[in-house]
Amino acid sequence: MHRVRIKICGVTRVEDALAAARAGVDAIGLVFYPDSSRVVTMDQARAISRALPPFVARAALFLDASEDEVRHVIETLRPDVLQFHGREAPEFCRMFGMPYLKSVPMGEDDIDLGAWAEAYGDAQGLLLDANRAGEAGGRGKTFDWQAEAERPDLPLVVAGGLSVDNVAEAIRRFTPYAVDVSSGVESAPGIKDAQRMQDFAAAVINTIG
Ligand SMILES: O=C(O)c1ccccc1N[C@@H]1O[C@H](COP(=O)(O)O)[C@@H](O)[C@H]1O
């Protein structure tokens, strides 16, 4: 059994990135979706990036951004991984030649994870989120964890409405590669709470999947 990796998404402040690193997380996410309350400017993203200690990965999150927007972030920030949350086609996701995660809209009926894994076979993993296709996430909403889901042949990242109260159950249900949380460790949108991040990380570390 591997250690379940932890990603904290929607970091907007240097102090929150440092608190996340102290909590022992593996990655943070920077949101480049303009309509998000957690969107970061390039200056914010650069400051957060520079402040992070080694070995904390940075994911750049997009929702149906243009090719130019994605390229601009890649060239300016050099993120470690791209995270696509919209209706991006496989060809779009792979055109940047970078590791990427593809979010799966688990809020839709009858999602076939096997088909998603086949379509996005070169993704580093599939991120299960509670949204419907094209809808923004980050709203603390869970999807139906009881629905029958085929186990795909790709690492799974579970997201959507996770918190210290339910992350252990999510790990037991999905045995994911990683968990991703945003609003469940916030005191306000885009403002992370150091204690909540610590508690969340402790809950993950103390859970056997
Ligand atoms: O956080 C956002 O504003 C956001 C915008 C557009 C797409 C995804 C977004 N957030 C991601 O949604 C999931 C779940 O978040 P939560 O824990 O339920 O708040 C997570 O991957 C966020 O990074």
From TrEMBL:
The keyword Transcription regulation does not apply. Residues 6-201 form the N-(5'phosphoribosyl) anthranilate isomerase (PRAI) domain. It catalyses: N-(5-phospho-beta-D-ribosyl)anthranilate = 1-(2-carboxyphenylamino)-1-deoxy-D-ribulose 5-phosphate. Pathway: Amino-acid biosynthesis; L-tryptophan biosynthesis; L-tryptophan from chorismate: step 3/5. Its EC number is 5.3.1.24. Keywords: Amino-acid biosynthesis, Aromatic amino acid biosynthesis, Isomerase, Tryptophan biosynthesis. GO terms for molecular function: phosphoribosylanthranilate isomerase activity. The keyword Membrane does not apply. It comes from the Bacteria. InterPro entries: Aldolase_TIM, PRAI_dom, RibuloseP-bd_barrel, TrpF_fam. Belongs to the TrpF family. This is N-(5'-phosphoribosyl)anthranilate isomerase. It comes from Salinisphaera aquimarina.
